[in-house]
């Protein structure tokens, strides 16, 4: 036992010196017992103590006060002196903070976490509450959420039961991982056997199973399916490139060219690129009617856009020029749309300032795009909306000139029933104006308006913004300043500038005359020493500008 290593030097710069000292003292006592030095004289044991504690400890020992030289070499006295030196540096508040905030680390085992908590609890001097507080912090600090929920549901739970439950849960989790690893290893070995048989070219159980399933689908055999099934890594279902089922690396679309995007490796039905027009060609139809401004055909083929000589800049790639009213107009082609609409608004002044909207529609399929005029005619008055007064006057004037309902309807492109209703309404009421519709309900009630009037009569100088805030605080409604002004105007109250009062009274005038008589005889040198100020009106509260009242 003579070769037994002694304890390491004590580090006096630690944060928790008291705990480190207790731990080192326990190690030293065990070292004395193990080396059979506990029965030796005090001088020998004290010398061993000073040797093991290190140079820093020996320096501290030289500064300690002893009553006699014998006490300086007495081990029990020396240990008591070191206890007094290390214990005052113990901070209970900080130690308890570390205990209450101690949680289980990511890779820390449950037993290690329990030992750490118990060591921290012993340093905090909780007394009889040590086990109870340790149990609470242990439940709150564990990382296993399921274990924590199960422990919180348990009634009358103590520290021992909590430790047993945590150890059991951790052991069960480790055993489950071992079982899962064993099953995965077995599956990998089976897959490896399948691969070796396939490389040898033998007729494996997988091949027989595939043949049997194919025969059953065709109705040619009633034989039962094979015992083993092919692993998924050797057979592809619903291929993303061809859409069929096949063996891996046997896709029929491997060297095929897509008809849509012109790329290799997939069929057109599985293409994920967006649709676009590869080339635009314009053919003019000279046999169109006089009223038709656009009647042209747009065709598309499979060549690339950048090969067209007409398109010189990138911004012109998806544009086409169409002739409208003998003028070339550039239109942008929407390559992803099946129908492209071009709107043209025409004004017919002969029918009384009535607007007709013509819609040019481009139908596009995979090979042909056609432009058609007058696909739909949008009338000026939409369904459910009243006609304007000007249009009603036109209808009535045409009726007074002797035109019938049918001719008026055709002339201005309005339903005949609408024409009849307009004329009959004028004959019955004698007016063409539209009926006034109900507006939005008022936000202020009669009671709120009375409150506003009462506030104004109490103080005519109150502003509309302050009145709005007052009403909002009383009624709980969000009222604007404009609303308050409009309601006060309807009640007969308007903003006015108050009548100007006389600035100087008789007393003011007499005091100024007496002041002038006193200083009128003063010389110029006297007035040079006087500091003059202007007569600007400075109000501590309110504005210096013009004040208005209701």
Residues in helices, as a percent range? 40-55%
Shape: flat
Order of helices and strands: HHHHHHHHHHHEEEEEEEEEHHHHHHHH
The strand order across the widest sheet is 3-4-9-8-7
First and last CA, distance: 109 Å
Structural notes for this entry:
There is one protein chain. By secondary structure, this protein is an alpha+beta fold. Among the domains are: 231-273, no CATH class; 281-378, no CATH class. Helix content is 44%, strand content 10%. It is built from 19 helices and 9 strands. It has helices at residues 17-34, 42-53, 55-63, 69-72, 75-86, 92-100, 110-123, 130-141, 145-153, 159-200, 205-218, 389-400, 405-412, 416-429, 446-458, 464-475, 481-490, 506-519, 524-528; strands at residues 235-236, 246-247, 281-284, 296-299, 319-324, 327-332, 339-348, 354-364, 368-378. The strands form 3 sheets. The protein has a 5-stranded antiparallel β-sheet with strand order 3-4-9-8-7, with no helix packed on it. The protein has a two-stranded antiparallel sheet with strand order 1-2. It has a two-stranded antiparallel sheet with strand order 5-6. Helix 6 (92-100) packs antiparallel against helix 7 (110-123) and helix 16 packs across helix 17 (481-490). It is flat and about 140 Å long. The relative contact order is 0.03.
